[in-house]
Design goal:
39% helix; mainly alpha; three-stranded antiparallel beta sheet; 3 strands; Lysozyme; single chain
Length: 145
């Protein structure tokens, strides 16, 4: 009986969680189709790098930052306090719309963010991991766009 309970618990923990992680090349293709390649001067490699360091390519990622008093949503972890309906809503979008794996609303919102004074610097993870990287080309290795 005890083994059965443990196996049942493990099954719940390992079962589908609703997370939908995309492959690197799938992300690259969707971002390319969405018009992000060299949008505001940033290469597609920069966008793919950002997506990896923000969400590990998980468009349904949600991070609740209680210290910063915001929640981040989706592939680019777009902050609710500024960009979606739980805050100033500068993107005019529901935060949950940023969790869709088709990435349409996410890309539209990311374009608005990057047009701001900080560009991709709006994302600290881009500044730390992508901005000065001399290996950005690897993010598109093997991807057919």
């Amino acid at each position: 009986m005890r083994v059965s309970a443990v196996l049942s618990l493990v099954g719940c923990l390992l079962g589908p969680s609703g997370a939908y992680v995309l492959g690197r090349c799938v992300v690259a293709r969707r971002l390319h189709r969405g018009g992000l390649d060299y949008f505001e001067g940033y290469s597609l490699e920069n966008w793919v790098c950002l997506a990896y360091f923000e969400s590990k390519f998980n468009p349904s990622a949600v991070y609740d930052n209680t210290r910063g008093n915001y929640t981040s949503f989706g592939l680019f972890q777009i902050r609710s306090n500024e960009w979606c309906d739980r805050g100033k809503n500068r993107c005019h979008v529901a935060c949950t719309d940023l969790l869709n794996p088709n990435l349409k609303k996410t890309i539209e919102c990311a374009k608005k963010i990057v047009q701001g004074k900080d560009g991709m610097g709006s994302w600290p993870s881009w500044t730390l991991n992508c901005q000065l990287s001399d290996t950005l080309g690897r993010w598109l290795d093997g991807c057919k766009l």
